[in-house]
Amino acid sequence: MEQNQNSSLFSLNLDAQNSYTLRSVASWAKVLGVVSIITAILCIIGGIIFQQYAASYSDYGSYRSRSSAMNTGAMGSIGLVFYVIMGLLYGISGMFALNAGNKINAGLKTNNMELLNGGFAGARNFFLHSGQF
Asked: Which residues have a Cβ under 8 Å from the Cβ of 28 and sit 6 or more positions away?
């Protein structure tokens, strides 16, 4: 009968093809992290602009009743909170991806298994977090 020489998960080694694939994954994780962080910043800025626009719209003409002006101002504040929460979610997700990419790349360059494991843990955190929304 045939015996599997690599029966234990901990006896696996990386060959050149796996190393190349992991470097590619790490570089794409960095790109995804940077894009997510930029999206987070734009989302927060968009929330501020939306809130300022709603505040200026509520002060817009004298023909509007006081209750509609208060509703428009409240809508701007709710929009700001929504955009900030979405920006924070994208920012945290981007930090996980950037951290995973950096650790995987550093682990492969220095042959440090702890860094590589930390990169895989960061990738797990990224997928766990980005799967939430």
From this structure: 101
Q: What angle do CA 34, 30, 23 make, to 5 degrees?
A: 165
Distances (CA, A) of 94 to 7, 29, 113, 133: 36, 9, 23, 13
Q: Radius of gyration (Cα) for the chain, nearest Å?
A: 23
Q: How many CB atoms lie within 10 A of CB 22?
A: 18
Rounded CA separation 51/75 (Å): 8
Q: What is the pLDDT of residues 25-42, one digit of tens each?
A: 999 999 999 999 999 999
- Predicted confidence (pLDDT) at residue 65 exceeds the cutoff of 60: no
CA distance 30 to 99: 8
Alpha helices in 59-112 (DSSP H): 66-110
In this structure, are residues 73 and 54 in contact, taking their beta carbons and an 8 Å threshold? Answer: yes
Indicate whether this model's pTM tops 0.90: no
